[in-house]
Amino acid sequence: MKPIVAIIGRPNVGKSTLFNRIVISRKAIVEREAGVTRDRIYADAEWSGRQFIIVDTGGLGSESDEFGPLIEEQAKAAVQEADTILMLVDARVGVLPDDLEVADLLRRAGKPVIVAANKAETERLRQSSQEFFSLGLGEPWPVSAAHGMGVGDLLDAVVDLLPPPSPDGDEAPSQRPPTFAVIGRPTVGKSSLV
Ligand code: GDP
Ligand code: MG
């Protein structure tokens, strides 16, 4: 069994955008049990040699702006099945009562949680995202899912919180490390760069 990382948070904070940035392949998305997973999508992900399942709790459809029982249900279900939880908030909006409600639920769940403040594309936003410390879930990680900023550091932290790899080989690291090709016209400096 690969560990499961669930992205949860209010509508429109950028959960699906972050999910799409993290997944290896959209093709890997699996509907597990019909009905139960209608509001969640799953995909394979890998970072630093650790393989895991990433879950977008927002579902496939467009989310309404209304917070309420639906989000709470999703958060609860995500907490139940996830090994590690990635709580996403909106750095541009700041702390909202709904964020506090989600954080409360997560704190009581006793599972590892990482808070990421999305849409933090400017230095000012990266600094103000520290206000999410008040959620009581540790240091907030400023990211921009849309632009990929901070996502690598965030994934380093997520992978650190995963349970140790299972010995059944299900999670064996890829056979070879990633390879990169440097291409370009002659004498542009390819060899020097390598
Ligand atoms: P979800 O409802 O939490 O799944 O949020 P979405 O991923 O659908 O994103 C909601 C809106 O926020 C969309 O208009 C996105 O384009 C926008 N968005 C997502 N990530 C970022 C980001 O990193 N920066 C900015 N500026 N906008 C973002
Ligand atoms: Mg979504």
- Report, as a whole number of angstroms, the end-to-end distance: 38 Å
Strand content: 15-25%
State the helix count: 6
Order of helices and strands: EHEEHEHEHEHH
> Main sheet: which strands, in order across?
2-3-1-4-5-6
Task: Please summarize what this structure is.
With 194 residues, the chain is of the alpha/beta class. Helix content is 28%, strand content 18%. The chain has helices at residues 15-22, 69-81, 97-109, 123-128, 151-161, 190-193; strands spanning 4-8, 41-47, 50-56, 84-90, 113-118, 140-142.
Describe what this molecule looks like in 3D.
Helices cover 28% and strands 18% of the residues. It is an alpha/beta fold. A six-stranded mixed sheet has the order 2-3-1-4-5-6, sandwiched between helices. Helix 2 (69-81) packs parallel to helix 3 (97-109). The protein is globular. 36% of the residues are buried. The structure holds guanosine-5'-diphosphate (GDP) and magnesium ion.
Task: Describe how the helices and strands are arranged.
Elements: E1 4-8, H1 15-22, E2 41-47, E3 50-56, H2 69-81, E4 84-90, H3 97-109, E5 113-118, H4 123-128, E6 140-142, H5 151-161, H6 190-193
Helix pairs in contact: 2-3
The chain binds guanosine-5'-diphosphate and magnesium ion.
Magnesium ion (MG) binds next to helix 1.
